[in-house]
Write a structure and sequence with these properties.
- The structure holds 2 protein chains of 2 kinds.
- By secondary structure, chain A is an all-beta fold.
- In chain A, 0% of the residues lie in helices and 56% in strands.
- In chain A, a hairpin with a 2-residue loop joins strand 6 and strand 7 (61-66).
- The mean pLDDT of chain B is 92.
Chain lengths: 112, 116
């Protein structure tokens, strides 16, 4: 079945850029998503990218998609302490509705 | 417009008891998804429901778990005879009958189930 993999931890200094990587296996994905989860909270959609795009920029967020390698990345510019959270990559499993396949999440720690 | 609501936020049960988790989707949303998050893991799809219908329950364990989304009232995820391995965070998400262009799902805050 479909699978999504992410590295588990990332530590960056405040003001630096963060890059979170994700690989997926489903070649028929239509959309890929990045969700943010803060402690004790639900998931908040940060951004998404359509499968026929290579890049999408939204303020401090840049998403890169390499369909050939099935690799997705999220870059956060000027990382702030408020960006500390778990970031989930998700793939839409298709089938006419949006069953999401999530990675295990990358825990981003931002230190001064 | 209130977001997706889930209750209770925290639920403690002893082994063998029943757990009932409730999800009220956003106003106007008729599609509900349930996901389970085990400690240190990502969310795993359990079931997708529309009003009065189960569309896809491929992620539901074959026994003890059931879900419903009645015509009136919240969606219910029911776990009978809970075991310690059921301890997890259970998230509900909803979407409208006509999906946005990117099929966004709106997540609730989750119910954290602890089985003693």
């Amino acid at each position: 079945g479909e699978d999504v993999e992410q590295s588990l931890f990332l530590s960056v200094r405040e003001g630096d850029s963060s890059v979170i990587n994700c690989t997926y296996t489903d070649s028929s994905s239509t959309y890929l998503y990045w969700y943010k989860q803060e402690p004790g909270a639900g998931l908040q959609l940060l951004t998404y990218i359509f499968s026929n795009m290579d890049m999408k920029q939204d303020q401090r967020l840049t998403v890169l998609l390499n369909k050939k390698d099935k690799h997705l990345s999220l870059r956060i510019a000027d990382t702030q302490t408020g960006d500390s959270a778990i970031y989930f990559c998700a793939d839409s499993a298709g089938g006419g509705y949006n069953k999401l396949i999530f990675g295990a999440g990358t825990r981003l720690a931002v230190h001064p | 417009n209130a977001g997706v609501m889930q209750n209770p936020r925290h639920l403690v049960r002893r082994r063998g008891q029943e757990a009932r988790l409730r999800c009220s989707p956003m106003k106007g949303h008729s599609h509900v998804y349930w996901y389970r998050q085990l400690p240190e893991e990502g969310l795993k799809f359990m079931v997708y429901l529309q009003k009065e219908n189960i569309i896809d329950e491929s992620g539901m364990p074959k026994e003890r778990f059931s879900a419903e989304f009645p015509k009136e009232g919240p969606s219910i995820l029911r776990i009978q005879q809970v075991v310690r391995g059921d301890s997890a965070a259970y998230f509900c998400a909803s979407s409208p009958p006509v999906a946005s262009s990117y099929n966004e799902q709106f997540f609730g805050p989750g119910t954290r189930l602890t089985v003693l």
